[in-house]
Structure formats: structure tokens, C-alpha cells
Amino acid sequence: MNREDSDVDIRNRNKNLKEDGDPRFSGSEAMTRIESSQQGNSILSSLISILVVISTALIVFAAARNSITWHFQRFWGASGDFWQALWDRILDTIGEDALTLWMYGPIFVTTFVYWFAGGIYTLLDMYNKPSAIMRYKIQPGMNEPVDTKRLMKVIGWVLFNQFLITPPGSYLAYKAMQWRGYPAFRELPTFHWVLFELAILILIEETGFYYSHRFLHSKYLYKFIHKKHHEWTAPIAVTAEYAHPIEHIFSNILPPFLGIFLLGSHVATAYLWFSITIVATLHSHSGYHLPFLPSPEFHDYHHLKFNQNFGVLGVLDRLHGTDTKFRTTTQFTRHVMMLNLVPPREMFPDPSPKHQLGK
Ligand SMILES: [Zn+2]
Ligand SMILES: [Zn+2]
């Protein structure tokens, strides 16, 4: 999708807005009024989203500050001891060498989590069993079953990125951490401190990923770099790291690492955070909107339409208006965590051609 296409989309969207106006209003003045009030609403709801995020971060921060006090240490108590004992055993086994923990550790953790979780999704994609799960497919009929040749190409590229691109990146990350300093390995941070850091890490990743990803959608970068990742308009989990090596460094490795670097996190927090980001990106590419899990509709729609939904959380898309088309779709109404077993496509069926949703 190039810039001309985006412009056409924007023009069509504006045209639709005009055509869909309330019939009680007529003439250009009324149209301007409708458009400016819609614009006002959109900006207002963006500001509200940002306020919600900032206030959540502040609340988490308030809680985290207390976490360093004796009371919270006591509250965490027994469970904290369990994780500390486990961590002690790991360190007793692998040692406390900085290069091992900061360079090889992240490579091992991210690769292991990627293929363990990604392997489960891939078995689903290959065998389509249990068949009940197919009802949860976001784009039904796509990759049912996945084409073996395409899958092999993806696995090859991902392994290339993980074994040839990630290691030098991880070495630079180790050097960067040595330069900035980090907490001693032995003592784990408190639970509340980890929660606080995770909240900040998510916000930093959202920012880093949104802007690097939008940049990748500029005409030339898209053509030479990002197009590869977009070969899949109906992605499967393991396409998460199916990307040009340059994209792998700037969009996949750097945004999650940036927060760890800025916060000077404990190496165990880094492992936890990297594991969360890997599972999250696998799930958001999986193509399965399963109950009790976060909705992957947002990024799936990005692969389907190219010029919508650049972020992870969607906060910056709201602010920049890069989700306006998405918000008029059935996929958007399905973009919630399902708290029952009804598949989203059955709970919110596709509109019939005569009665389109959002109109
Ligand atoms: Zn993607
Ligand atoms: Zn993209």
C-alpha cells in the first residue's frame, strides 16, 4: 500500500462522512458543523485515552513507591521468597557472568519462548485441530491449513533473524547496559517494583514501536524493508518476526530494549518483559481471537489494510487518527477480550451488504 492509496482512502472516508450526514442537515454549513464536531469528538476521546494512560501510570507509580517500603516487602512475603529461591538456583547453575546474563540470556529466553508458544500456534495452523478452534479464526478460510512452503520460508527467515541478527544486537545491548549500570544480579526486585517497571516499559514500547513502524510505512522504507513483513495479509503467529533484518533491529529488538536501558532494570525483569513482548506479538499475529485472551483484531487489521493501526496498544493511533477507518468496522466491535466461549464472529456477525455497520 503506497501513499496514493492512503490518500484515496482518506478522500473516500471524507466523502463517506459527507454522504452519511444526518438528513436533517443540508448544505455545506451543516456539513462543516458535522465534520468539525466529529473532529472535536475524536480529539477529545484521544485526550481522554492519554489521560487514562497517564493516570494509570501515576497510580502504578504511587503503588510502586510504597513497594520499596517494609510493608510491601512483608505483603509480598512468601511468594517473593519462592521466586528468589528459584532465581538463586538458576544463578548457581549458570553463574553470574555479565556477558552470559545480559547477552546470551536474552537470546536464549526470547528464542525459547518464541518457538515454544509459536510452536503451539503453528500446530494449530498445520492441522486445524481441534476443529472447534477454527470458529475463532479472525479471517476464516485463510491458512486453513497453512501452506507448507510459505511456512518453511517464514521459519527460515525468523531463524536467520534470531541466530544472525539478534546476537550482535544483544551484544550491543550488553555493552549499553554495562555503560549505564544495572542492579546486582543476586537480589530480585520487589513485585511492586516489577509491576511499576512493566507499566513504564509498555508505554515506552508503544512509543518506540508506533513511530518506527509508521516510519517503515513511508514510501521507500516500505518498498525495501517493511514489505516483507506485509507479505502476509492474514498473518499467523510465527510471522511475528518474519521481517527484513533492519526492521528486526529497529522495530522488534530496540523498542522493548529501550525501556530496560532507560530504567536500568534488573536482568530478571528484562527476561520477564522480553517473554511478555514475544508472547504478545505471537498472539497478535496468530489470527485466532480466543476467549479470555487479549484481542488480536487490532494488528490483524493492520495486516489486512496496511494503513491503519500502527501501534501496539492503540493509544497513539487514537491520537494521530490512524485508526479512524478501523473504528467503523465490524472488526473494531469484535476488538474486546471475550469473556465467554462464543466466537467473536458469531457474537458480532458480519453485516449483511444492505445494512452495513457504523452507518
Ligand atoms: Zn505485523
Ligand atoms: Zn506495517
TrEMBL record:
The keyword Membrane applies. Residues 199-322 form the Fatty acid hydroxylase domain. It is found in: Membrane. GO terms for cellular component: membrane. The chain crosses the membrane at residues 43-64, 101-124, 154-173, 193-211, 253-274. GO terms for biological process: lipid biosynthetic process. Coiled coil: none annotated. Pfam families: FA_hydroxylase (PF04116). GO terms for molecular function: iron ion binding; oxidoreductase activity. Residues 1-23 have a biased composition (Basic and acidic residues). This is Fatty acid hydroxylase domain-containing protein. The lineage of its organism: Eukaryota, Metazoa, Ecdysozoa, Arthropoda, Hexapoda.
